[in-house]
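Reviewer 2 asked us to include a model.

Predict the structure of this chain.
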Amino acid sequence: MEERIGFIGVVIEDLTQANRVNQIISQYQDMVTGRIGVPDHERNMAVIGLLIRGDDMKVGAFTAKLGNVPGVQVKSAMTKK
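Predicted model (structure tokens):
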């Protein structure tokens, strides 16, 4: 499969899930080329933006694992080539 670049946006609606999200990101660290995280402690949530590089199968597995964490929303956008 062809490697593409893209972005994954992660909204953690409950900061008690932050450790689990970080564990998953660590599992796929070879794909992550950039990361930004913005916590909102007043609302007990956070947003993480990930710049990634990988093939469709690996990106799909990554986003699926993140999306299966309770209280976590995930969206991705990838290049077409």
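The mean pLDDT is 96. The chain has one domain: 4-78. We have added this to the supplementary material.
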